[in-house]
Amino acid sequence: VLLSGDDGAFCAGSHLDLLQSASEEDRAAMCDYMQFVTSALWLDPRPVVTYGNGAAIGGGAELYTMGDVRLANEQSMFQFVHTKRQLSPGQY
Fold first, then answer.
1. Backbone angles phi, psi at 68, to 5 degrees
2. Rounded to whole angstroms, how far apart are CA atoms 37 and 33?
């Protein structure tokens, strides 16, 4: 399984400003969805390769770390922005 981005971005994750103002149900649904995606990658018997060919921010950085093999180019940037908002990854 190969996960990569396009046009200089791997994955930006969620818009945390919108997510923090969302309802409790919407935040729970987003968290459940991210757990579904990461669980599917974790449980897949095939090797997962993530290619960070640009920015991987927040949930995108979480997704990048799910790779069994993680590749990056010189333009790659990884940023966990959760702590700037007093959140931990997977907590919304």
1. -65, -35
2. 6
Contacts 24+ apart (CB under 8 A), 27-33: 27/92, 28/92, 30/92, 31/90, 31/91, 31/92
Q: What is the pTM of this model?
A: 0.77
Q: What is the mean pLDDT of each run of 10 residues along the chain (92 residues)?
A: 85 71 81 87 94 86 90 87 65 48
Residue type, 4: S
Helices (H), the chain: 16-20, 24-43, 59-65
H helices then E strands: how many in the chain?
A: 3, 6
